[in-house]
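Example S7 (structure tokens).
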């Protein structure tokens, strides 16, 4: 049996790429005493499974859907400042008698943009969607002082989220609305981050551009070109690697596009650093993820 245990809890969990990615990171550093496995944990059993992991001397865990928010109810975890504000924890670290909680998702998104050559400081950022992923990312950039617009199919959710973020960060430049001003919002943004599930699964053939209203004389193709040229467009979806949204965004001139692969890699790399104090090789982790995605396509 391996002496250093890690894992990911989620429900369902069978699609998680974290075991492949983290195992590649451990092996690249010669840490063969470490193992990382996926565990299906029903939300109702989260508390006892965390306690069990603690008793079995786990070092760290990742949490994924639908446990990131649920974990607060267990009362077992001491969240850091950011995880507390985000109301979501994706990384647990067992240290002595304590269990510490972190959220590395948003910093993962930030590092993915940096990796793609995008300097976000002082930029106007448009965030599409107002769910859990949007909340962490919006909060992160609001804390960094960016000007943010959050738009969502359900306008009230975006408005409420923007208000909450202003309150929690003291950054007054965070605004929310529905999709009615979508094209104008794209025009005003330097960086666009797509956080909804459009483009995935049953929404494979839908892009958020399909949901923005068009004036009679306008066409989607023309507006995409007008609003996106020269910008950075980030879709946090990693499977498929190219959503309809990214495919359409690429038709504008000089756009930098990125999918969710490097966000997945960096949120994992940041968790790895919290647990081990070592910097893993993000390139090795990326390769492991890309190979696994290719195998799934076959
Ligand atoms: P996550 O944690 O992945 O962010 P979530 O909290 O369930 O997931 O949020 C899903 C997001 O996708 C929401 O912004 C949701 O919009 P609504 O608040 O209007 O539901 C968005 N979404 C889901 N299906 C959508 C669709 N068909 N069109 C537009 N937005 C959609």
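Recovered sequence:
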């Amino acid at each position: 049996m391996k002496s250093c245990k890690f894992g990911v809890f989620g429900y369902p969990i069978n699609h998680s790429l974290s075991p492949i990615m983290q195992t590649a990171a451990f092996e690249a550093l010669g840490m063969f005493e470490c193992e990382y496995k996926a565990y299906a944990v029903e939300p109702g059993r989260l508390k006892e499974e965390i306690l069990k992991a603690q008793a079995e001397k786990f070092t760290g865990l990742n949490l994924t859907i639908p446990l990131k928010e649920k974990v607060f109810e267990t009362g077992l975890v001491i969240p850091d400042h950011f995880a507390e504000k985000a109301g979501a924890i994706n990384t647990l670290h067992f240290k002595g008698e304590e269990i510490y909680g972190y959220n590395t998702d948003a910093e993962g998104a930030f590092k993915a943009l940096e990796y793609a050559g995008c300097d976000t400081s002082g930029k106007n950022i448009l965030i599409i969607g107002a769910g859990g992923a949007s909340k962490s990312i919006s909060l992160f950039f609001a804390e960094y002082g960016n000007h943010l617009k959050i738009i969502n199919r359900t306008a009230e959710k975006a408005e409420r989220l923007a208000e909450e973020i202003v309150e929690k960060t003291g950054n007054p430049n965070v605004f929310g609305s529905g999709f009615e001003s979508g094209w104008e919002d794209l025009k005003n943004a330097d960086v666009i981050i797509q956080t909804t599930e459009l483009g995935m699964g049953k929404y494979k053939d839908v892009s958020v551009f399909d949901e923005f209203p068009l004036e009679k004389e306008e066409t989607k193709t023309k507006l995409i070109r007008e609003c996106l040229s020269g910008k950075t467009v980030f879709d946090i979806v990693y499977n498929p690697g190219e959503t309809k949204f990214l495919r359409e965004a690429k038709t504008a001139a000089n756009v930098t596009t990125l999918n969710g692969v490097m966000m997945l890699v960096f949120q994992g790399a940041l968790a790895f650093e919290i647990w081990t104090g070592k910097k893993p090789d993000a390139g090795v982790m990326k390769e492991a993820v890309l190979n696994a995605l290719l195998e799934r396509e076959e």
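Notes on this example. Residues 147 and 156 are 20 Å apart (CA to CA).
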